[in-house]
Design a protein that fits this description.
This protein has a domain of about 230 residues: NAD(P)-binding Rossmann-like Domain (Rossmann fold, 3-Layer(aba) Sandwich), CATH 3.40.50.720. The model has no long low-confidence stretch (mean pLDDT about 95). The chain is built from 12 helices and 13 strands. With about 325 residues, the chain is an alpha/beta fold. It is about 45% helix and about 15% strand. The strands form 4 sheets. The chain has a 7-stranded parallel β-sheet, sandwiched between helices. Strands 7-10 form a two-stranded parallel sheet. Helix 5 links the parallel strand 5 and strand 6.
Length: about 325
């Protein structure tokens, strides 16, 4: 099988590329703006990588969609601070650029595996989010943080419609707070410049206090990257067409903890297990900050985000295996080694 991965140097793309090369005989054709996360993949004879911008190198994209059997467009802006700071960039990349890719997949009869997001559920009041039944609830227009959620949601709807009316073969997967090595640059000092886990690790390493937006009472279900990639490999395999034209939540509903608990756990783990940074960790204070103060007027938060993974269990035979303490230790080993 030939697989096209756009955004191969990203968090998911780099881990997925490693897994495909290690566990299958598939060839990967890949593009991204940089290659710093792909050191183990680049020498491989089944990994064909070019540095490029998918919004500009359109002829290369077209030719490689024609060449490949499966297409994974993993390019997206996925940092909450940017939803408020640069909403038009979010829309242009997450929706417009990816729409071009999906249209080409439909034109050439190629299967697309598209990264949706847990954020499509927005402020859904359900205790557990179901792919088929849960309502997708977002805030008013002036709360610009929802442009990411609605851009992704509209892509989901377009892909579904293309599957129903144009014969597009697709799978949609919704990651719920995947984390692990290579998630973000922990040394990025910009407020909100990375996702919450790497932001907190960076705060500790720089000797900064940790800002808890809204007191950190909001909860998230954290899933370790190896579990997510395991699910993606099963979706790619598509055994007995189990993933054909299906939507999957991929997350770990058991590891549903508050952002405050995450911060406290990281401080404790670094202070206990990493002597080089122990003094900095012990000095860190947890500071409650207002969401508007931290992210700006256009931000609105989500209190709970728990996935139902019944469909992934039943259709893919998939179950998350890594508990959060183990996953955090592996992540910290990567960043602090």
């Amino acid at each position: 099988m030939n697989i096209l991965i756009l955004g191969a140097n990203g968090f998911i793309g780099s881990h997925l590329s490693e897994a495909i090369l290690a566990k299958t005989e598939h060839h990967i054709y890949a593009m991204d703006l940089t290659e710093d996360k792909l050191s183990t993949c680049l020498p491989h004879d089944r990994f064909h990588f070019v540095i490029g911008d998918m919004t500009k190198q359109k002829e290369w994209i077209r030719e490689h969609i024609k060449l490949c059997d499966v297409v994974l467009p993993l390019v997206a802006v996925a940092t909450p601070a940017l939803y408020v700071q640069d909403p038009l960039r979010v829309f242009e990349l997450d929706f417009e650029a990816n729409l071009d890719i999906v249209r080409l997949c439909a034109e050439y009869g190629k299967r697309v595996i598209f990264p949706s997001t847990s954020e499509v559920y927005g402020m859904c009041p359900d205790d557990e989010f179901d792919e088929e039944k849960s309502h997708l609830v977002t805030g008013p227009i002036h709360k610009e943080r929802w442009i990411y959620s609605t851009s992704k949601q509209l892509m989901d709807r377009v892909i579904y419609a293309m599957g129903k009316h144009k014969g597009l073969s697709y799978s949609l997967f919704r990651p719920f707070n995947w984390y692990g090595p290579r998630l973000d640059n922990v040394f990025n000092p910009k407020r909100g410049g990375s996702r919450v886990l790497t932001q907190f690790i960076g705060n500790i390493l720089r000797g900064e206090d940790i800002n808890l937006v809204g007191g950190g009472m909001q909860k998230r279900s954290f899933a370790y990257i190896d579990d997510g990639i395991n699910a993606l490999m099963r979706i790619i395999e598509n055994k007995e067409q189990a993933a054909h034209n299906q939507i999957f939540n991929i997350g770990n509903p058991v590891e549903n903890i508050s952002i405050r608990q995450l911060a406290e756990t990281l401080v404790q783990m670094i202070a206990s297990h990493y002597p080089k940074y122990a003094d900095k960790a012990k000095a860190v204070k947890l500071i409650e900050v207002d969401a508007k103060q931290y992210f700006g007027e256009g931000y609105q938060d989500i209190s709970l985000r728990v996935p139902s993974i019944r469909r992934a269990r039943e259709s893919l035979g998939w179950e998350p295996q890594v508990d959060i303490k183990t996953g955090l230790r592996k992540t910290l080993d990567f960043y602090l080694a």
